[in-house]
Amino acid sequence: MINEQMYAFGAESSKIREIFSYACARKEEIGAENVFDFSLGNPSIPAPAAVQESIARSLAEVPAAELHGYTPAPGLPAARAAVASSLNRRFGTTYAASDVFMTVGAAASVSIALHAAVCPGEEVIVIAPYFPEYRVWIETAGAVCVEVPADPETFQVVPGAVAAAITPRTAAVIINAPNNPTGAIYPRETLSELAEVLEEVNAAREQELGHPQPVVLISDEPYREITYGAEVPWVPALYEHTVVCYSYSKSLSLPGERVGWVLVPQVSEGARRMMAAVAGAARALGFVCAPALFQRVVIDCVDTPTDVAAYARNRELLTDALRAYGYTFVEPDGAFYLWVRALEPDAEAFCERARGFELLPVPSDSFGVPGWVRVGYCVAPETIERSLPAWQALAKSYR
Description:
The protein is of the alpha/beta class. It has 14 helices and 13 strands. The protein has a seven-stranded mixed β-sheet, sandwiched between helices. It has a four-stranded antiparallel β-sheet with strand order 9-10-13-12. Strands 1-11 form a two-stranded parallel sheet. The radius of gyration is 21 Å and the shape is globular. It starts with a helix and ends with a helix.
């Protein structure tokens, strides 16, 4: 027998991965320099020198059995402590190592959080547009994905719209800022309003049920370090029932190494139960024991800065050109994606025409909204520069 749900997920692959695979094949056919692949959020900026130094030091100094062996399921105690200490320095908190669970990258972090917080048949609210894999992970947890549109002009979360979508079955809300795919950052005032909405729901539920049953806010933050001046509020300071998911894929340019963490601030008995559920979800999903070598990299590099300036230069190069060619887009405050309005209502058709110019953005339909495309500008600047005549020709083809 075959699990039909898993078959469906596999048979209908990620649109992002599908375009990336096409790009790889096309590069073999006509040369990589002639294909303008903006599909994946795959940093072209090398990992910082501190990462290489950490790896070299571990290889030279750490016994092989420790370096390549299993760690405790929640992660190396020193790695968990390093993460907690870094957060305490940055946000004035008092977290302990026991508040942190090391994970196998961002996908594991969010999957674990969902399986810990949500029961089959419950609902999880996402803010559209949203990272397409959220739906896969929500449905794998047996829950229902409920899309709540962001503001159509600014792509900010609308707390009132979230409030209107909450039902007795709502178990969690996922937010992602800096946002993939729009680059939007949710300001403190908006997140405070969202927290007030959830607190009102929680109070009503406790009064009705006679015991707490709070809505969990899952804050997915792999792009936290990639911002262009805007503040990224620390969500647990605004809402007690927050679970933070993080990955070093973007901040340290380590997407293939699969290392991140889940934070559950241990502020109540409910939070302690949630952390136990996180551990149980990791066990059930097979996500225990993040890579030992890269947990050691986290210990050494937890505060290493991200080369945001390189992404800022790419952003300026791309936005200046596309604006001149007549495209409209959301000015990104963070991450490394440009959310561009397609030049026709059908984003899939627009992307198909773009392929004729060897341009490979991602259509917005899989992100939960029509009529836009995501352009990942985490590529080499030379790729952007070579692509500009193609973007101009594509725009002219619509006139």
